[in-house]
Design brief:
alpha+beta, 2 domains, five-stranded mixed β-sheet, 8 helices
Length: 336
């Protein structure tokens, strides 16, 4: 039912376009009225355009049956000549025009009108296809975000629940703080990251909670520095872009070093430009060989390409002892 309704609407639109084209062709600046004999000719062109648009193109051209498409196009053009030369002109003209057989002149008049009607249909289909492509891209971005959230959560939750359990057994005074920061992160992931964009200050607060949570587990094994600068109010960013680099920094620093851990995170906002820096120490001899090519980093790069096309610059420098990430994002270039 919806398919027939859609087809009905498309045909109505094409008829409206044909009517406008008729007014354009039929009106003469020296004689400002419709030449009524043009109407049956235009009706013929409209019927032929409908046949091409809804029969020949979908059943032959789009299915790459080009030979049959060419045969039917020749047959359609021949039918225009027959209808105009042997039917319409015989009925409408008595001034001698009907006695002259002029197929070339008929095609010269018919083909430009057909091309206009076909071009409108191609433009309409291109618009619909672009809309579908945009919808698929949006769905892909959402699936990428869901994948990223699913990737972060298991590792993150497993480690922190284990640590929480250990602190609870020891009746550590850190337990309430760990629960508080952990609940803030989970709440942010579940409720604030549903959309394509989030407020920048909320993203920063989530990173701050993540940093505090890891800082509680450092046990004096190193130093953490997290600083922000600039006005973050009323600015938006794609969710969970920055946290991947932060999570990566803590994971590899803490897993490869027992002490001397160093993590330095900086977020600076100037107008619509965000500058993010994350530097962490690590020991290359231990399990850090996958730092540059981890799934999380590949994933976030793909999301940056989709969400900020030509609107970001990412550089990663691995010295073997320090891992340095610099990311500049034009916040106003976020693709909806």
């Amino acid at each position: 039912m919806r398919r027939f309704r859609k087809l009905y609407i498309e045909i109505i639109i094409q008829l409206v376009v044909a009517l406008l084209l008729l007014l354009f062709v039929a009106f003469d600046k020296h004689s400002a009225h419709i030449h009524w004999h043009e109407i049956p000719f235009m009706a013929t062109y409209v019927m032929v355009a409908l046949v091409i648009n809804y029969l020949l193109l979908p059943y032959f051209f789009y299915r790459k049956r080009y030979f049959m498409f060419g045969v039917y196009i020749i047959a359609v053009l021949a039918s225009i000549i027959v209808i105009e030369e042997f039917i319409l002109e015989q009925l409408l003209f008595s001034d001698g025009r009907s006695d002259v057989f002029n197929p070339i002149g008929t095609l010269v008049e018919a083909i430009p009108v057909l091309l206009i009607l076909l071009a409108f249909n191609f433009a309409r289909e291109a618009t619909l296809k672009q809309r579908k492509i945009d919808e698929l891209k949006h769905a892909m971005i959402e699936s990428e975000l869901d994948f990223l959230k699913g990737q972060i959560n298991p590792h993150f939750m497993f480690n922190n629940l284990n640590n929480l359990y250990a602190y609870a057994l020891e009746s550590s005074p850190k337990t309430p703080k760990i629960i508080l920061e952990l609940s803030a992160i989970i709440r942010y992931m579940l409720y604030d990251c549903k959309d394509n964009k989030v407020l920048l200050d909320k993203e920063i607060e989530n990173i701050r909670s993540f940093v505090k949570l890891n800082e509680l587990q450092f046990e004096g094994r190193g130093s953490i520095d997290f600083k922000t600068q600039g006005n973050h109010i009323h600015k938006y960013i794609a969710p969970l872009i920055l946290i991947v680099f932060v999570e990566n920094a803590f994971k590899h620093s803490m897993s490869s070093q027992t002490d001397g851990i160093f993590v330095d995170i900086s977020i600076v906002t100037e107008k619509d430009m965000l500058q993010f820096k994350c530097v962490n120490s690590y020991t290359s001899q231990t399990n850090t060989k996958d730092i540059p090519g981890g799934i999380g980093l590949k994933n976030v790069k793909a999301r940056l390409d989709m969400l900020y096309p030509d609107g970001y610059k990412l550089s990663i420098d691995d010295t073997g002892a320090l891992y340095n990430v610099n990311l500049n994002i034009e916040l106003n270039r976020l693709k909806e």
